[in-house]
Design goal:
With 425 residues, this protein is mainly α. It has one domain. It is built from 20 helices and no strands. 47% of the residues are buried.
Amino acid sequence: MKHARRAVSLSLVLACVVGTMVVGVLTKSPCASGDWGDLRQYRLLCYTDIVPLRGTEQLAGGRLPYLEPCTPVEGQNCDEYPVLTMYTMRVAGWIAGDSYPLFYWTNAVILLAAAAATAVCLWLLAGRRALWFALAPTLLVYGTVNWDLLAVALATGALVAFADRRDSLAGILLGVGAATKFYPALLLLPLFLQRLQDRQPDRAIRLLWSAAAAWLWINVPFMVAAPGSWWEFFRFNGQRPADWDSLWFIACRAWEGACLATSTINLGAALLFAALFVSLWAWKRDRSPGFPRWTLGLPLLISFLLTNKVYSPQFGLWLLPWLALVLPDLRRFVAFGLADLAVFVTRFWFFGELSGGFGTPQWLFEVAVLIRTAVLVWCLAGWLTRDVEPLALGARGWARARAPVGSHVAAAEAGGLTGTAGASG
């Protein structure tokens, strides 16, 4: 089969993603010293979790997360991230020693590598649309705010493995991703459903078992050796109140009756998330019964972000690969990037005002959050009404062409028929 030619080269995609990340890293470099007494983190928009968490997570010495206790400090949490994120911090702390700037730059290099890996995976899957990720404003401003790019790279790598019919590898990557951030675990559902749609239940089960085995292999040693410290991530997130960026917080500000207890919000968020996602799934199925089930990853993530009590700024990174793959509408992608950028600017300038310095009013920040919400709803509407290309590597010039995931060919192969995948543009 003659493979389709890519419209852009991988070297161009990598040059763009490196350029975007370098600009983002440099704009946050004024905060790398950890000397934030002049509120520069808000005034210069250089805030990053990386710098303060070196101290909060007590990484200056050789403390092993979970296995060695933290010194209690009022108002600070410790070991509040999943295992692989905590140990990424730990390794960076060993490299940096006593230097805050070196800790920041070490993590920046790690996150740059994760962004590059994500871009390569998207290039394999979506060709020129990898540039959307590489040039996204969300990547520019949030790439080094936290460690989410590690999970994004693993989740996108899982899609490449899944498209290449390597279900065990896809499951392993999602399991490892879930040991970095929670959200890759959510993506097991659409990929599992896709294999059921392909009439390949054995592959669907293999995907789940591989993910569970990878996650347990990483987590069980800490669960056994230090169960209380390991559980801190779940305890912290269960007790965490509604965050500034969430619709729950804005509703509480607008109407006193919406100010609910954290336990009530936890339950309400879970119910709303399930209800919204299932409604979108049913609507899409009624309109297009044979739609590829893997595309449910996009509405799943958007539903989670819209209904959750926390929408940390960098969570927008989760959506970038899915918007490029599932919703190839440049208008929507640009609108999301600009809205995310507006939230970034107004959020941290508002925090500056809250801290007694230069800033913007809270209402302006909340308007930006509501605009981003409207854009995400617009993206959901686009997913409901558009047909989606099959998830395929062969259609993008991959060396080993396979039947595109979600295509009629895949279903035919699952039923024991033969066929070849056609190249798409």
